[in-house]
Amino acid sequence: MEISDESGPTVHQEDPFEKEIRAVFQDTLGLIHIALVAHYGLEETEATELEKDLYVWFVRFCMRPGNRSPKESRPFLLVACCQFAREYQRYIVGTGVRETNDKVRELLNREPADVAQDFSQSLELLNYRHHPDHSDA
Amino acid sequence: MPETARILKFPHRGRVAVGLCLESAKSLALRYLDTPMSERSSDLLENCIAEPDAILALLGELRERCNTVPAIANDEAAKLFWLLNERPDRVGVFDEGHYFAGEAALMAGATSRLLGKRDDAELWFDRAESRYHRTINPGAALGRVSLERLVLLYDARRYERVFEILPSLVESFGKWGMVREALKCRLLEAMTLKETARLSEAVNRFRSLKNDPNVASEPAMHGVILAHLAELLSSNAEHLEATSIYKEALSLQHDDRQPIAVAHLKVAMGEGLREQGRIDEAVESYRSAISDYAGLGMQTLAAYLRVVTSEMLIALSRYREAEWELLAALPTIEEQKMVPEGFAAVTLLKESVRRRKTDSNALRELREHLQASK
Question: Averaged over A86-112, what is the pLDDT?
């Protein structure tokens, strides 16, 4: 999913904090998409739609009192992503719309927070490869 | 980003999170609040509940009203909580249903406390905690519940517990960058020092708060800080500075229309006048504050002040008025189990009756008269 720059009421009023949230989301989007499609087995279009909801959620989540910077909130974004994906896929599989394989079934049985932690480690590794001088990112 | 997210037949949501612009969200929230509870249509309820931004606007609006019309904010927050609770899976995205319900419960608890309903406040805080626990990263939200519980302990005069718990909470709010909550903790600490007669420490804390640049954006809190500081200075016979601070506080409250802070200020001024021996004026200031608190539904504070006022009235030999104040306070004292006030009220009543040298039936007659006129 691309986060479009098309003008609209929300984009018009975007403040620096929202821009930062957007940037963090955009940075994490690749990993989110991999999680949704490659790991949880969602179709491309489903993943794209879930990502849009996830973005709306992340904006409001970062604005909750006491939440840290968007960058520090990234692990929570991944937890939400995994929980979203699990609930959605469980529903689809449960209603018989789609069959699933052992790999996805195993993932659906795991706690989203644990799965997200694995993805976070991938994110750290990815960041380290891209920016070896800023491995804390 | 296009706001067109559409997820197929996700069973846990009736409508998708499309996000409203700020104006539309606020307008919907105001329409909801401006419509009397009994006249809200199911469409209006559904529209509001289906839009997370409208719920956020509603919570923001209610937060403003906590300090101006706490009884109404209390009813609305409770109503909103039950509304959200009926359909936790249909509200917002992901954990938002639980988060919004937690916010509504926290507000219902905070206003219950203001209204002197301490048992209700505890129950609402339990509900807030249980909802927050089901959200992602609940630490900060739970910290806000802890702070409200701490204020409840202060109200119940459990000062040793306040001192014990406060430091860890201050540290947490600092870590989370929650400036307003950290200020509130510091104010609570200063007020507790004042109540435990550690007056010079209290003055230092209030001065430090007064000079904190973050206080400027919190007019209600600013007013309370000034009122307490002026009261302490007045009790230390520093009347010149106290008067100047009272004036500053009055202008702040006048500009910002904060009835609770104005009532607090009247109490502080009454205390200052009493310290100066201007008892008649002090009584008037207290009575004005009692009327304000009663009008706001804050019965426990009104009852407490009635006891304090009666003591002054006895000193002025206005026994009959003193007894009326005490008897008016008794139902709340009994209902809210205000033990120290209860003892004080009984002692003062006896003293008043003794000094009046009337027959002992006067007290009973007075009580019966009051009960009949309720």
Answer: 83
**Cβ contact, residue pair B7, A10, below 8 Å:** no
Give SS3 for B237: coil
Contact B4 A52 (CB under 8 A): yes
Contacts of B141 in chain A (CB under 8 A): 64-66
Q: Is the pLDDT of residue B189 over 50?
A: yes
Using an 8 Å CB-CB cutoff, list chain A residues near B180: 65
3-state SS string over chain A? Answer: CCCCCCCCHHHHCCCHHHHHHHHHHHHHHHHHHHHHHHHCCCCHHHHHHHHHHHHHHHHHHHCCCCCCCCCCCHHHHHHHHHHHHHHHHHHHHHCCCCCCCHHHHHHHHCCHHHHHHHHHHHHHHHHHHHCHHHCCC
Q: Name chain B contacts of A61, Cβ cutoff 8 Å.
A: 136
Residue B245 · residue B208 · CB < 8 Å: no
Look up the pTM and report it.
0.80
Note whether B136 contacts A76, CB cutoff 8 Å. Answer: yes
DSSP letter at B68?
T
> For A96-105, B66-75, B218-227, B273-282, which range has the lowest pLDDT when averaged over its residues?
A96-105
Confidence of residue B188 (pLDDT cuts 50, 70, 90): very high
pLDDT digit string (tens) for A19-75? 999 999 999 999 999 999 988 989 999 999 999 999 999 999 999 988 878 998 998
Closest CA to A57 of A66, A46, A70: A70
> How is B121-135 classified by DSSP, letter by letter?
HHHHHHHHHHHHTTS
All residues of chain B having their beta carbon less than 8 Å from the beta carbon of residue A60 are 52-53, 56, 93, 96
What is the structure's pLDDT at B349? 76
Interface contact B1-A66, CB threshold 8 A = no
CA distance A6 to A18: 15
Asked if the structure places residue A1 within a domain, the reply is: no
Structural domain total, chain A: 1
Of B1, B94, B178, the CB nearest to A80: B94
